[in-house]
Amino acid sequence: MIIKGRAISPGYAEGEAITYGEAFSFLGGVDGKTGKFNVRDGTIDGKVFLFPNGKGSTVGSYVVYDLKVQGHCPAALVNKSAETIVTTGAVISSVPMVDNVDVSLVRDGDLVAVDGSKGYIELKNVKQVDIVSSLLLCDGKFLMLHRPEKSHTYPGKWSLVSGHVEAGESPEEAARREIMEETQISVGYPAATAPVFMVRYADTIYVVHSYMYRVSTTDVKLNNENTDCMWISPEEFDADESVDGVDRVLEFLKSEF
Description:
It is a single chain. This protein is of the alpha+beta class. The chain is about 20% helix and about 30% strand. The strands form two sheets. The protein has an eight-stranded mixed beta sheet with strand order 1-8-7-3-4-5-6-2. A hairpin with a 2-residue loop joins strand 14 and strand 15. Helix 2 runs parallel beside helix 3 (about 85-90). The longest helix has 13 residues, at about 170-185. The model has no long low-confidence stretch (mean pLDDT about 95).
């Protein structure tokens, strides 16, 4: 799967991913002579290192260069938002670098290709699937569906009305089809559309197309894809009991409530 970003430092490299979920300082965060982390297990030596952004002293730029000299430099760097320290380190050390990438989508051990000249990364072991996730709103409450305990994704979790976009159909067409199949409620055009975003489950990244529909009935007739349903207010929503991304849809569409 290819994820477009922004070219920061030119070059191309492939390697195993290693990630860090917080802002990272090369000064103190890694051993400049060996590439081993001081803040977690593992090493960045020869790996694609992904983290949200850099922080700390400008000396961090020269730690990256020291890693290059010592032969323990990362194969490439990927950020959500690049800043001067990491950018300078990548450029002076000729390390390919890309930013504007949601690094939370990448897992340790993924095989990642980074093109710092064209501004993209490729996850070699991850597939992309387009899905729809529709919020049905009636009298200030929205519909949640309960997934079976044996579901192959997010078992036992609550979701909006969701499903795959089939070949030859648009996301809006898929949304209307899924709503009819899973609830027997007929809808027309969406009242609102949320920005497209991505979530990951196992080795799949789901590209989520989200819509909101105002409906005049709470009468739901479930098919066998879900085991239960409920209409709730935003205040009753529990993110821990729901599939990834529902909270983002609610945030995008909160003005519609």
